[in-house]
Amino acid sequence: MSEEKQRTESKKERKAQMEKAAAKLGWLQRQLKEEKIPVLITFDGLDAAGKGLQINRLIQALDPRGFDVYTGDRDGEEERMHPFLWRFATKTPANGRITIFDTSWYRHVQQDYFDGMTKEKDLDEAFTDILAFEKYLVDNGVLLIKFFLTIPEKEQKKRFDKLEQSEETAWRVTEADRARNREYKKYKKINEEMISRTSWIGAPWHTVDSTKKDAAALAIMNTVNRCMEQALEEKKRVKEPGIYEGPLPPDRYKKGILVKTDLSKTLEQKEYREKLDKLQKKAEKLHSELYRLRIPVVLCFEGWDAAGKGGAIKRLTSHLDPRGYQVCPTASPDNTEKAHDYLWRFWTRFPKDGHIAIFDRTWYGRVMVERIEGFCTEDDWRRAYDEINAMEAHLVHSGAVILKFWIHIDKDEQERRFNDRMKNPEKQWKITDEDWRNREKWDQYEEAVNEMLERTSTEKAPWIVVEGNSKYYARIKVLKTVVDALEEKIKEVEKAKKKHG
Amino acid sequence: MSEEKQRTESKKERKAQMEKAAAKLGWLQRQLKEEKIPVLITFDGLDAAGKGLQINRLIQALDPRGFDVYTGDRDGEEERMHPFLWRFATKTPANGRITIFDTSWYRHVQQDYFDGMTKEKDLDEAFTDILAFEKYLVDNGVLLIKFFLTIPEKEQKKRFDKLEQSEETAWRVTEADRARNREYKKYKKINEEMISRTSWIGAPWHTVDSTKKDAAALAIMNTVNRCMEQALEEKKRVKEPGIYEGPLPPDRYKKGILVKTDLSKTLEQKEYREKLDKLQKKAEKLHSELYRLRIPVVLCFEGWDAAGKGGAIKRLTSHLDPRGYQVCPTASPDNTEKAHDYLWRFWTRFPKDGHIAIFDRTWYGRVMVERIEGFCTEDDWRRAYDEINAMEAHLVHSGAVILKFWIHIDKDEQERRFNDRMKNPEKQWKITDEDWRNREKWDQYEEAVNEMLERTSTEKAPWIVVEGNSKYYARIKVLKTVVDALEEKIKEVEKAKKKHG
Questions:
Q1: What DSSP string runs through A148-167?
Q2: Treating both helix axes as pointing N-terminal to C-terminal, what angle do B123-139 and B184-198 enclose, rounded to 10 degrees?
Q3: Which residues contact B8 (CB under 8 A, 6 or more apart)?
Q4: Of the residues A73, A165, A268, B211, which has the maximum number of CB atoms within 10 A of its CB?
Q5: Phi, psi of B45 (to 5 degrees)
Q6: Long-range contacts at A223-230 (CB < 8 A, ≥ 24 apart)
């Protein structure tokens, strides 16, 4: 066979293989949809390696009703005002859907690091956050497939040159691109280190040489197919909810932090009014400072039903500028929210830099109501402590203030308040049968709360137990804690600013 | 009574009135939630009139689980890349919820106009778009309450001075603010004209002098309460779906555009392949140009089941960069979508400048499936032609290319394709019982489609009927139409650019 004929033959063969792989991918997509498996595919790699082209090849085989493509290139205004994982965490796929990222969170430790936008000193933290994020996704059922596209140094240069030759495409090649080509070896080392630090069993890297476009497209499609098949296999294996194999929960959480709380603390009305007025004015002033210094703030409110969360939030916000804060009430998840990883609906509401987000109930529902009502498996809620700590750590790394309030009252006080609500026609709507049902599970909740307070109170994202039998006392304690924390953070940021000019 | 005593008394009285109004507002909020009435409250006005403060006073009386506050100040990156109504149209309230805008769409014809960012020549178009948008909201059940806060010239200057005295607040006063104060009279005239042009029965303006903060807060709350009461009254009155009182639908739509379509048009495979290749390469190049020139493109695909929408879309996109286009499939609305005005779910997917959005089925469902299946009232779908034309006009005003394809096949061809799908195991998933049921209503659909094509084909957002019995012919016609339209638009934009430097 002549060489040319051979080439034609192999081209034909590749086309046949490609068609077969595409048909299979279409079939697999439908299976994964049926099994409600969410899929996240990331494409990173060298500049001009052809990520866009390869993604387009891949999606041609997919049902467009089932996937979304997002670019992770250059952060926009919104993205710059959030932690670097935010833009991705808010776009994770729903069950049965596919999300494709053209450039993922890895840009932060790769290109941005090479370009000097991510500092050496922040690199370890960033890797920790990335690995925790990926672990969270994979543990919560996301099929995560990571591609890294490479091309040799010379091929890259050739592609840049070609792009620059035409007026229509010249703008695509930036000076930064050229710099990364000039220092190909240095950049390669950064990439290799990144890959070796983040290739783990739940989400290994797939490196593809994309010099030859067709061969690369086939390799990518085959990899996706293989991963999807594995995911289907695995899903079949674990039809039963996994039984937790760790040690049994120690009894010590039955009696924990809560029982030690001194609920006799109280405050007189006159003192309350004076302090309230002073603290509210201070909060207003600090809010303006936060905005100027672009500090994001996350305030979490949890507590027994009728403990006074709403009232405390109202006093906290009454003097704040509504453009700079948002109260985020948490109800049971709706269908869209249920179809996502459980932290997704909170990611979408995290504050921009300079803004305050106040959560009336939070992601801690995972280790309270979901644990107690069996809305998730034991595996799920046990894993959640670490997952939540990691997420909060990421917010802290990005400069956020996080405070978590548990407003505590005793069982008698709750009964009094429930009865008050029942009697008062203007407050009746506030009390439901569910409140009474929850009350019957007081002891179970107390155990769960104790465990939560111990496992998730960290230095930078602490729990504050607020003695709530006296509403006056509780509201002032919340306001004062917030004011103190904000003052401290503002000082810290001002100091750092002066130090670095 | 001494003067001081009198003041104390009137202050006390106002406080009592305020508390009463707040309790009422809380009650009304719950009633409107129950009746599923969406509420949109906008605050515009003069700088330093205290919009933020007034909004905060108002929301203190509301259940935070029921409202959202958004700022309409200064467009961010995302907003600048969309028509000016986009940031608002994507945030309209769901049924039973309240959305509050601190600065609304009026900024575009007020502050932005004064500052020279909105040009004189675009003003009329902008007013038309605003009024159509408000009419759409009100007609679709949104309670729209518009506030305009004023303060006298001297009071405004005093407030600016006070803000500037303190280091912490000085940054809030910009040179533009000062300019608007210096030219108070000129700016006042702009505002008065705006108010007179846009006060209409469905959404009159409420002007509030906010020199005295407490009095203004009370006036605002009372106005909101009054409007809410009216909305509740009205809702009760029209429990029955309104009967359409216009002329009966003319029979002429039974035989219309579709019947004149020549479905014998066809294309040979060889010619198809050549043209396809050429056009796809051209589309790729033009896509890059669009991006550079920041032209947004909206492509709509409608047609009979199995007409070949998916295949046409696939050929259209196969060479495009996935970062620059998105296929938006339209299924029946989910619960969140159902709770919003019917165009909301499309607004959220309109393309940024420089991007292409391809809709596989569209908002025209309102005048096809929703009309035929009775998912909306006759009033609703009859109104929809104008509502849709207005929305598309707004996109066109912002510089978008809009093309709408009706892919047409005849009833026999559909049957052939349905049967093919049933026989082919790889295509069986594409055919459902619903497809067969829809087929039985062919004549009703034909009538609706004819009316739609006539009523909503406009010069800048035309319908193109594609002869679809030959898939080859249809795909090429779609591609060619898109390529031609893009070329023309690019030429037009290039020309305008050269003219204006």
A1: EEE--HHHHHHHHHHHHHST
A2: 40
A3: none
A4: B211
A5: 150, -165
A6: A223/A145, A223/A147, A224/A25, A224/A41, A224/A58, A224/A145, A225/A21, A225/A24, A225/A25, A225/A28, A227/A143, A227/A145, A228/A25, A228/A28, A228/A29, A228/A31, A228/A32, A228/A39, A228/A143, A229/A28
Chain A residue whose CA is closest to B25 = A426
What is the pLDDT at residue A238?
A: 63
The sign of the CA dihedral A423, A429, A434, A440 is negative
Tell me whether residue A455 is exposed, middle or buried, using C-beta atoms within 10 angstroms of its C-beta: 0 to 12, 13 to 18, 19 or more.
Answer: middle
Q: Do A326 and B68 touch (CB under 8 A)?
A: yes
Residues 52-111 of A with CB under 8 A from B: 52-53, 55-56, 59-60, 64-65, 68-69, 71, 73, 76-78, 100, 102
DSSP string, B141-198: T-EEEEEEEE--HHHHHHHHHHHHHSTTTGGG--HHHHHHHHTHHHHHHHHHHHHHHH
Contact state of B288 with A52 under an 8 Å Cβ cutoff: no
DSSP secondary-structure letter at A260? G
Among A160-174, A189-203, A477-491, B309-323, where is mean pLDDT lowest? A160-174
Q: Tell me the DSSP string of B362-392.
A: -GGGGGTHHHHHTSS-HHHHHHHHHHHHHHH
B199 — pLDDT class (breaks 50, 70, 90): very high
> What single letter denotes the amino acid at residue B267?
L
Q: Provide the residue type at A392 as one letter.
A: E
What does the alpha-carbon distance between residue B94 and residue B88 come to, in Å, rounded to a whole number? 13
Report helix angle B309-317 to A51-60, nearest 10.
Answer: 160
* Of residues B146, B159, B164, B145, the one with CA closest to residue B49: B159
Distance from CA of A256 to the nearest CA of B (A): 32
B residues 336-355 near A, CB within 8 Å?
Answer: 336
From the list A326, A493, A485, A331, the residue with the least C-alpha distance to A404 is: A485
- Helix locations, A61-110, DSSP H: 77-80, 86-89
Q: Which amino acid is at A166?
A: S
* CA gap A36, A97 in Å, rounded: 8
Using DSSP bridges, classify how beta strands B39-45 and A356-360 pair: parallel, antiparallel or unpaired: unpaired
Separation CA A302–CA A407 (nearest Å): 6
Residue A78: predicted pLDDT: 86
- Tell me, yes or no, if B169 comes closer than 8 A to chain A by beta carbon: yes
Which of B53, B288, B327, B353 should be substituted to probe chain A, the one whose Cβ sees the most A Cβ atoms within 10 Å?
Answer: B327
Interior/surface letters B195-227, b for 16+ CB within 10 angstroms, e for the rest = beebeeeebebbbbebbeeeebbbbbbbebbeb
Contacts for B237-241 with beta carbons within 8 Å, 24 or more apart?
Answer: B241/B377, B241/B379
Q: Two tokens at B285?
A: 């190049």
Q: Calculate how close chain B gets to A315, using CA atoms only, in Å.
A: 9
Give the span between the Cα atoms of A206 and B440, in whole angstroms. Answer: 50
- pTM across the whole model: 0.86
Residues from chain B that touch A22, judged by Cβ atoms under 8 A, are none
Q: What's the DSSP call for residue B404?
A: E
Per-window interface: A 358-377 vs B, CB < 8 A: 360
The ipTM is: 0.79
- CB-closest option in A56, A64, A318 to B321: A56
Is the pLDDT confidence value at A243 over 60? Answer: no
Give DSSP secondary structure letters for A360-371. Answer: ES-GGGGGTHHH
Nearest CA in chain B to A25: B426
What is the token pair recorded at B445? 């659909």
Cβ of A55 within 8 Å of Cβ of B288? The answer is: no
Q: Enumerate the β-bridge partners of residue A146.
A: A42, A205
Q: What's the mean pLDDT in B395-402?
A: 96
Contact between residue B89 and residue B134 where contact means Cβ atoms under 8 Å apart: no
Cα Rg of chain B, angstroms? 27
